[in-house]
Design brief:
It is elongated, with a radius of gyration of 22 Å. Helix content is 60%, strand content 10%. A two-stranded antiparallel sheet has the order 1-2. Helix 1 (11-19) packs antiparallel against helix 3 and helix 5 (77-83) crosses helix 7 (94-107). By secondary structure, the chain is mainly alpha-helical. The chain has two domains: 11-46, no CATH class; 53-123, Arc Repressor Mutant, subunit A (Orthogonal Bundle), CATH 1.10.10.10. The two termini are 40 Å apart. It has helices at 11-19, 22-25, 28-46, 53-68, 77-83, 85-90, 94-107; strands at residues 110-115, 118-123.
Amino acid sequence: MTNTSNRKPTKRDNFNALLNIEAVKADPALVEFIEHEIALLDKKNTAERKPTPKQIENAGFKSDILAFMEPDTLYTVADLAKSVPSIVAAGISASRVTAMMTQLKNDGAVVRTEDKRKSFYSLA
């Protein structure tokens, strides 16, 4: 198994590595078992999942955050947690707002910048 990055090998990586071992190839029962496990991983990864109630709730808060933010203005998580009316009313913690801002950053909706170890967010 060649792992060029520093990431930990996944279950799929390990099963594929096992399939390349000659002793495993010689045992049809082991090959069948490993191929079955890989098929289960494929099935698990393609399953349609409904969002959880918390994810649905967070989607509403994220749209409220985006509606609140103004272009060319920097916001800290604390600013947003204290200023966005729906978040204040729901009593959402700053750590949960941080998680939502990270998701928005990963989606490309906001840009994160750091200044003196403090994170600021602005509209993308």
